[in-house]
Prior knowledge:
The protein is an alpha/beta fold. 40% of the residues lie in helices and 16% in strands.
Amino acid sequence: MRRVAALLAAALLASALLGCGGGGAEPGAPKGATLVLDFQPNAVHSGIYAAQANGDFEDAGLDLTIQEPSSTSDSAKLLETGRADFAVMDINDFGIARERGLDLVTIAAIVQRPLASVIANDPNEIRKPADLAGKTIGVTGVPSDDAVLDTVLRAGGVDPSSVHRVTIGFNAVADLAAGKVDAATAFWNAEGVELKQQGIPTREFRVDQFGAPRYPELVVATPRTKGKCIIAPQFAAALERGYELLDRDPHAALDDLLSSVPGLDKPSQEGQLNALDAAGAFSPRNSKRLIGVEPAATSGWASWAANHGVIDPGAVDHVVAGFDNPPLCPSR
């Protein structure tokens, strides 16, 4: 009886795949899919690699390829051209992609609070945002950096024009360590952890503690096309299991990441994971799903992003619609 049920399930799956762009794949064969990351693999991606290592994507009928990006702009380009099915995206990049006309939707959030911060290299001199007045502050050049810096400065009553802003690319650790800048925009879970591990005293001003709302930093996006109508729910269900493992046993999930990506520095990744876990970065406030996209959080982000020039205020409704769990299969 079990064999009959299994054969029937395989036949139904094959039929569904054929009806949704599955082509002539063998009945029951895994559907190929590609996920592009937002950055080089690191601790925030542990749940993804846990799901892959434990066979969750395979059990969901997916033969998933995890692809590292060559640059932070890869995600939108690969989704737009059909060379990736899913992408981990910074929420600001997702919003900008929606604004310029890409019909992307989010199916998950893998980091549920902002990771952006302003990090100062002299915690004795700079104790609060007001102490940043007149300082030299490095930014990467990414548009959302200015929004983060302006938010933290205004939380301290500092006019953003009163600081000396310099573009340093992604050299925050080196430039802070060398004293080339007094502070820099950086991720508290990455550069912040690295500076601590190097023994460099710092002061962190996390943006959601100094003026910005709590919003999901990293979301998983996919194009709203008919070709995703089957694999997106399957993918999300498998991803959920990976982040459930991360929630239950963070270091088991981290081991899956380290085993899958040779060359990662274990102490560095452990430090990042510990910082993320201690900050509740993987925990949504209201959703029952660990990877749930919460409407209140995304609406709060959109208002903040529009007020600080990340997205155009006139595009807010269109951008927010991408978080609103629309049907993945278009009606036509």
